[in-house]
């Protein structure tokens, strides 16, 4: 299946120039994130919503920033860093997934309210 974002989408959303190694990893992560989205949002529209590249790029950048060895936290001298997600890695938040879901249909028809 076609990925929902590209490495160029990821690069466009960061000020840091990705190395060739990071670009290769980003390509794999974009594919993985696309698969996660398709599994978690089965009602994904075709074409996907305009929010898809930004949502996936955010998840990929988050994964690229997490410690590569999967540590939740690390300390070097007086500096400490903690991953925002248990185990770090690639994940999408519920809010991000909601950005990919179709909007709920507006209620239609008449209704009655019974009082007692």
UniProtKB/TrEMBL annotation:
Region (Disordered): 66-87
Superkingdom of origin: Bacteria
Protein name per UniProt: Gp19/Gp15/Gp42-like protein
Species this chain originates from: Saccharothrix ecbatanensis
């Amino acid at each position: 299946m076609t990925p929902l974002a590209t490495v160029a989408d990821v690069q466009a959303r960061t000020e840091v120039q990705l190395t060739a190694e990071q670009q290769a990893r980003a390509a794999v992560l974009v594919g993985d994130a696309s698969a996660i989205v398709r599994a978690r949002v089965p009602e994904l529209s075709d074409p996907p919503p305009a929010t898809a590249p930004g949502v996936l790029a955010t998840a990929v950048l988050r994964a690229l920033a997490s410690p590569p060895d999967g540590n939740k936290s690390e300390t070097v001298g007086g500096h400490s860093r903690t991953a925002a997600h248990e185990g770090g890695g690639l994940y999408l938040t519920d809010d991000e997934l909601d950005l990919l879901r179709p909007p709920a249909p507006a209620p239609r028809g008449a209704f009655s309210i019974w009082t007692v």
